[in-house]
Write a structure and sequence with these properties.
Trna Endonuclease, Chain: A, domain 1; alpha/beta; 109 residues
């Protein structure tokens, strides 16, 4: 296996690993059951349930964001009724959204 193949595999796997870990962390922190939501026109990275009802929905973006990415996340999370809608990013500086925006630093609080 070449280094290019390894980089490609890591680039494909890393976002999924990060999504899984962030979803698990939030579920444990808030005592909720973790799930995801998938439909033919969208998927939501994290749906945290309280008595089978969505309490928190998460969209996790682990790349440099553009305005279009943020708008798409906002539209996607509107599809599920939950009391908290969180956009989780690497660094929230400069990220303007109607969603609650959190980053790694917020996990340390």
């Amino acid at each position: 296996m070449t280094s290019i193949e390894l980089e490609r595999i890591i680039d494909e796997l890393m976002p999924h690993i990060i999504e899984d870990n962030i979803r698990e962390f939030f579920a444990a922190k808030f005592g909720l059951t973790e799930s995801i939501a998938e439909a033919k026109d969208y998927d939501i990275d994290g749906v945290l349930l309280k008595f089978k009802k969505p309490e928190i929905v998460l969209e996790i973006k682990w790349k440099k964001l553009c305005a279009e990415d943020i708008k798409k996340a906002e539209e996607t999370l509107k599809k599920i009724n939950a009391s908290r809608k969180i956009l989780f990013v690497q660094d929230k500086k400069g990220v303007n959204s109607t969603l609650e925006v959190m980053d790694v630093q917020d996990l340390l609080k």
